[in-house]
Amino acid sequence: MTDYEHQKMNKKMEKRGNFILWVGLFLVVVAIVFLIIGFTSSITYAIIGAFALVIGTTAAIYGLQQKKKGKGTNIGIVTVKCRKCGYLERAGAEFCSKCGEAM
Ligand SMILES: [Zn+2]
Questions:
Q1: What's the CA-to-centroid distance between 94 and ligand 1, angstroms?
Q2: Which of 7, 26, 48, 82 stands the most exposed, by the fewest C-beta atoms within 10 Å?
Q3: Percent of the chain having pLDDT more than 70?
Q4: C-alpha 97 – ligand 1 centre gap (Å)
Q5: pLDDT given at position 70
Q6: How far does residue 1's CA lie from ligand 1's centre (Å)?
Q7: Please, which pLDDT band fits residue 75 given cuts at 50, 70 and 90?
Q8: Would you place residue 74 in the very low, low, confident or very high pLDDT band (cuts 50, 70, 90)?
Q9: What is the pLDDT of residues 13-58, one digit of tens each?
Q10: Residue 61 contacts by C-beta under 8 Å, 6 or more apart in sequence?
Q11: Averaged pLDDT, 46-74
Q12: Are the C-beta atoms of 84 and 99 separated by less than 8 Å?
C-alpha cells in the first residue's frame, strides 16, 4: 500500500469517526430528553433513555477514538509529489520510488 493510499484510508477513518461521534452525541441528547420525560411520566421512557445514553456515550467515545487514530497516523506521513510522474513520495526521500527521478 502506498503512502497516498494510506493517507486516504486515514482520512476515511477520520470522517467515519466524526460521523459516529455525532450520531453518539445525538443519541445522548435524545436520551436526556427521554430521561426527563421518563421521570415526569412513564418509567418506560426512562429505561429507553438510559439505554440510549449508554449506547450514545459508547458510540461517541468509539467515534472519537477512530477520529484520533485517523488523524494521529496522518501526521507521521508527509508526502511530496514527484515532478516527473506525480507519484506521492514520502517526504525526505532522495529518489522517487516509482520512476527514479531525484526528488
Ligand atoms: Zn516519479
A1: 11
A2: 26
A3: 93
A4: 7
A5: 76
A6: 16
A7: low
A8: low
A9: 889 999 999 999 999 999 999 999 998 988 899 999 999 999 999 9
A10: 24
A11: 86
A12: yes
Cα separation, 84 vs 68, in Å, equals 34
* Among the listed residues 14, 23, 32, 17, the one whose alpha carbon sits nearest the alpha carbon of residue 56: 23
Output the CA 46–ligand 1 centroid distance in Å. 61
Distance 13 CA to ligand 1 centre (A): 28
Residue 50: which residues within 8 A CB-CB, separation 6 or more? 31, 35
Q: How many residues does the chain have?
A: 103
The DSSP code sequence of 86-99 is --EEETT-SB-TTT
Distance 93 CA to ligand 1 centre (A): 11
CA distance 93 to 80: 9
Measure 87 CA to ligand 1 centroid, in angstroms.
5
Distance 70 CA to ligand 1 centre (A): 27
Rg (CA), the chain: 22
